Description:
By secondary structure, chain A is α+β, with helices and mostly antiparallel strands.
Amino acid sequence: MAxxxxxxxxxxxxxxxxxxxxxxxxxxxxxxxxxxxxxxxxRGLPRIPTNILSSRLKELQEGGVVRRVPLLxxxxxxxLTPYGRALEPILLALGRWGFQTMGxxxxxxxxxxxxxxxxxxxxxxxxxxVDADYELHVGDVALRVVVRSGDLRVSRASPxxxxxxxxxxxxxxxxxxLIGGDVTxxxxxxxxxxxxxxxxxxxxxxxxxxxxxxxxxxxxxxQGSPGHGSPGPCDPAT
Amino acid sequence: MAxxxxxxxxxxxxxxxxxxxxxxxxxxxxxxxxxxxxxxxxRGLPRIPTNILSSRLKELQEGGVVRRVPLLxxxxxxxLTPYGRALEPILLALGRWGFQTMGxxxxxxxxxxxxxxxxxxxxxxxxxxVDADYELHVGDVALRVVVRSGDLRVSRASPxxxxxxxxxxxxxxxxxxLIGGDVTxxxxxxxxxxxxxxxxxxxxxxxxxxxxxxxxxxxxxxQGSPGHGSPGPCDPAT
DNA sequence: CCGGATCCGAATCGATACTG
DNA sequence: CAGTATCGATTCGGATCCGG
Lengths: 238, 238
């Protein structure tokens, strides 16, 4: 099980050797939410084969990204090492980047608690954040989302204790267009992309201000430096 | 050739579906330096099978990451779309992350012009940059590295025109320890990790100030939020 | 239930050869 | 220069099984 190498002495190469294998970054994504048991990971990644999960965890441990922590008489959990946690800004940026071309969900796609939590983190704008307390339902995931003084805290919504949040938003995948700015809160309500089942509908404005991802933001360097130009002095056609 | 899906409706998932396949991010890395021909990419990725390069380029085009641009009577090049270029900060961060655990080169590892260029970009500190003009040799790659008023420009060193740069640094892979801060410029010279074949050796101090990657920088959130805690109220052992 | 290990067919990857 | 074709080696996916 020697790790598959690319044969280059380079930081990017080393990085993709550590976390570039199939499923690895999704495991890291879930572990960024918190330590997880083997079974939690399996539930959060419904289509991962168990032998692959097992291999990845082993490789991530060898790479110093993940640590295996036994709990006193309670089984064990996997958690990120400090080195693994340093991937957080990278995964948030990757999530923002991928968000922009997500389109509509494909048949069979699921939304998991951890992926939705990370999605909210990627979209969170501390500088525009409006204090509020939401309960957000997407698919069959229900999260409690508390925004307070520029800080975001996401946890699972407790099923029994009902009337706690300021607003309960039910938004099966339509929340993407709100966060992406494709629709205004009013439009989203009018087109029934989501509903506010309890609390003032105006909390939707606060939500849209707090969670937002704008389209692209490419660095507009004029595409590469000259001097590397193997292409030479030819103009692009069209 | 249907893209291999993970079955999750999530930004990170979408991102790894677009650029997570083997070799894809290394292709993007090279294209971040500038538009490249098929053959350039092949030379820059010596161990990529040509059919894989072909497949990846096709997939990256379908994903809107790469564009195929015919040159007037001069063949064609691949270049990043604006969406693809938006990966630049992510690849730079990944490069910094991987850099920290690169260790010594393995047998057969190569350093390519594009990978070294990107490595310099990942390590570049505009705020500490000292204006200078280097010629940097690593392996059989020779780059011209010009730092001027907080700006970095890297190009291939022209083999014939010799005496141009302020200093010529020859540093087969030892430059990693200098950039990583493992050694001071003086130590690097004393231990013969690199040599300054022309120009004042003090340019090495400028170089080390300008190009630097420090160890880790993990966000020190106390490891995940409570409320997600399936692990429950058990203390970690040890 | 938890934490995997094992087995096997299907898909992908790697290496080389070949072509317009 | 810019790929396609072929084929064996690996890896992945899906299912089952097993010890605590």
